[in-house]
Specification:
alpha+beta; 6 helices
Length: 205
C-alpha cells in the first residue's frame, strides 16, 4: 500500500470507532482495537474489551454519550502511527432534575499499529479542550454548585460535573489543550513512532 492508502485505512478505523460505538454495533466495534488495546476516558480507564462491556451496559441503561468527528491528521512510521482527530463528545443527562446537554470539544489521540496486515488502535487518549452545558429546555433554570464545578479541570469541567452527578467517578488529570499532561502525551506519541516498546506510560496499569 502507498502511504496515502495506509493513512486512509487508519482514518477509516477512526471513523468506524465513532459510528459503531454510538450505534451499539459492538461486534464490529471490537474490530477497531488490537487485543491489547487500552481506552482512557473521563469515566473509564482500562482494556478495550472492558470498555466495550462498560459502553454496552451503559447503552442498554440509556446512558447518552455520542461523538462527532472532524478532520484527522496521521503521522506514519512504518507499521506504527499516531492519529489525531478533532472531535466533539456530547452527553445528555439530568442535573438536579434539569435535563441538560454537555458538549466537549477536543481531539482523539490514537496510537495505531499494523499487525497481520490490519491497522487497529493500541491506545486511545482523548484531549479535552473546552466544554459547555445547556438546558435542553431553554426556559429551564439551572444553578450549578460552584464549589463542585471548580473541582474539575477547565477543559472538561462541565462534562465532569454532569458525569459526577450521574454517579460516575471522573479522572481529574487528563490531557487538555495545554499543560504538562498533554506535553507528556505528545512525548509518548513521539516515542511510539520512534520504536518504543510500549504505547503506554509505566503507570497505565
Amino acid at each position: 500500500m502507498s502511504e496515502r492508502e495506509e493513512k486512509l485505512a487508519i482514518v477509516e478505523v477512526v471513523n468506524n470507532w465513532a459510528l459503531w460505538r454510538d450505534a451499539g454495533d459492538w461486534e464490529r466495534f471490537r474490530t477497531v482495537w488490537h487485543d491489547d488495546g487500552w481506552m482512557t476516558a473521563t469515566w473509564f480507564q482500562g482494556p478495550a474489551e472492558k470498555f466495550i462491556e462498560a459502553s454496552r451496559a451503559g447503552f442498554e441503561k440509556g446512558v447518552n454519550i455520542l461523538h462527532f468527528l472532524g478532520g484527522t491528521s496521521v503521522d506514519l512510521a512504518g507499521e506504527r502511527a499516531i492519529a489525531q482527530t478533532k472531535m466533539t463528545i456530547g452527553q445528555r443527562g439530568e442535573v438536579d432534575g434539569v435535563l441538560v446537554d454537555v458538549v466537549c470539544i477536543g481531539r482523539f489521540y490514537d496510537f495505531f499499529a499494523k499487525r497481520g496486515g490490519r491497522w487497529a488502535i493500541v491506545r486511545r487518549q482523548p484531549i479535552y479542550e473546552k466544554d459547555r452545558m445547556d438546558p435542553v429546555d431553554p426556559a429551564a433554570r439551572l444553578a450549578l454548585d460552584a464549589q463542585l464545578l471548580a473541582r474539575f479541570p477547565e477543559g472538561y469541567r462541565h462534562l465532569a460535573y454532569l458525569q459526577t452527578k450521574l454517579g460516575f467517578t471522573v479522572k481529574l488529570d487528563l490531557p487538555q489543550l495545554k499543560g504538562p499532561a498533554v506535553e507528556t502525551l505528545y512525548a509518548q506519541g513521539r516515542a511510539w513512532l520512534a520504536g518504543a516498546p510500549s504505547a503506554f506510560p509505566d503507570t497505565h496499569l
